[in-house]
Amino acid sequence: MKRILSLGILSSFFFAFTFILNRSMNLSGGYWMWSASLRYLFSLPILLLLVGMQGKLKPVLAAIRQAPGPWLLWSTVGFGLFYAPLTWASDFGPSWLTVSLWQLTIVAGVFLNPLWGKKVPLNSLGAVLVILAGVVLIQGESILSGQAGGEALVCVGLIAIAAVAYPLGNRKMMSLCGETLDTPQRVLGMTICSLPFWLILSAVAAAQGRLPDGNQLAQAFLVCLFSAVIATLLFFQATNLAQSDPRLLSVAEGTIAGEIIFTLIGGVVLLHDPLPSGVQMLGIAVIIAGMLLNCRAAAGRS
Fold this sequence. Notes:
This protein is mainly alpha-helical. It contains 14 helices and no strands. Pfam families: EmrE. The chain crosses the membrane at residues 7-25, 31-51, 71-89, 95-113, 120-138, 144-166, 187-205, 217-236, 248-272, 278-299. This is Multidrug resistance efflux transporter family protein.
């Protein structure tokens, strides 16, 4: 139990760097298109090395050759339409705002179930409503007051797109791969097949004369290292240890709520992000409560 909890909390700590560093790149003048593209461009050689060292590269390439269309489509949805809007959202508010709203992915995941012939789990609807209430509390002040209300709506819209694209693309790819590829192989394949999207995005940014400087390159590499490699491996290890026990699995998955707290602390301390108002702090607490309720509901269904 202690090891699962420790691994999960540590993974949420490293996941938080995605939101902190994306905001940092934005504040230092980095263009969001490069912040998004560079993460995956840097991830590709690392994943090729990790999977290649295990001798598992050929099955990935063979799977892509068998169904190139679905691979390209759902990799672009699951990675491209997920991470590009999420990164762009960092232009519209502090890092704690982005990571809090990102929990809309839980809401999207629940309502995507019918696409796979599954019912919407009724015991998760309470958690969904709690999370949505937290989102309303966080953004309600800005929208109702008219102060940056348009930006608040754009931010929510971008994250809503990302929150739907991430589970949709990943679930479609899991269905396509079945048991033929393990998680690192699938992530590598999706990175390869989303490459056209990232190259087009990079070309658009370059055509606009917006080239990354050394600072943005370094921070984008840290996002790749901390989030795409370290955090993901730690989280997968925690869930693997807990997979035989639904209760422990809910504990492992619930630790992801820690990324909100770590991002809030890191953003305020490192980037001098403004502190949330009292109402916004309440919204963050409500979202975390909704996440934990969802984990409990998931354990009850298992």
